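tokens incoming
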């Protein structure tokens, strides 16, 4: 039985400031670093075989802190922009409340929560999945099929697209899924790649 643990990075500075972050490379807040350390405490019982993370430092720093706490700093790590957060385009850096004032609540909700409508210059969740899932199938899934314990530190939307795939959710169901920062999401996966169980630690 393989174990796949997904974790969204700890709180970032722009999470705190309620801004659309996307591919902007912002730092973790002190709370975000503590969330990563707390996740590490929850993950102490697990011995990982490999870790994967995005090209953005908030996810990389979360992973580094987890591995420090668990005493696994020599773990092989693969970094790839395929796991980056959804690209928010023209909304990146804008305060979410101010964006609602500018464009209207209904329009912003469509950009944020629809499956296949991208914001101006950015990606929809569907677009995000179209880069995350081929990477997962090519690089991560074979390790899972080999029965390994794998840790993936990434972002709310890149992980939502992966959760949609793993749990076979519809595009309507995934819109109701929110992944909290710093909370390990644990999957048991059988030898055929089927999810047997999943839970937050």
């Amino acid at each position: 039985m393989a174990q796949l643990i997904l974790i969204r990075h700890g709180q970032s500075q722009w999470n705190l400031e309620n801004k659309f972050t996307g591919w902007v490379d912002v730092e973790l807040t002190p709370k975000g670093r503590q969330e990563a350390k707390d996740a590490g405490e929850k993950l102490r019982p697990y011995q990982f075989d490999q870790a994967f993370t995005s090209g953005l430092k908030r996810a990389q720093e979360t992973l580094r802190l987890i591995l420090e706490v668990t005493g696994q700093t020599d773990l092989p790590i693969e970094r790839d922009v395929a796991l980056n957060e959804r690209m928010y385009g023209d909304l990146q850096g804008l305060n979410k409340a101010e964006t609602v004032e500018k464009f209207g609540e209904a329009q912003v909700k469509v950009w944020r929560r629809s499956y296949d409508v991208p914001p101006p210059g950015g990606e929809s969740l569907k677009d995000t999945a179209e880069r995350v899932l081929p990477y997962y199938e090519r690089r991560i899934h074979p390790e899972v099929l080999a029965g390994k314990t794998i840790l993936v530190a990434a972002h709310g939307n890149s992980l939502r697209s992966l959760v949609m795939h793993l749990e076979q959710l519809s595009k309507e169901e995934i819109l109701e899924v929110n992944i909290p920062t710093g909370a390990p999401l644990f999957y048991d996966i059988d030898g055929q790649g089927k999810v047997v169980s999943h839970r937050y630690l």
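note: The helical segments are 13-16, 30-42, 57-70, 96-103, 105-113, 125-145, 156-166.
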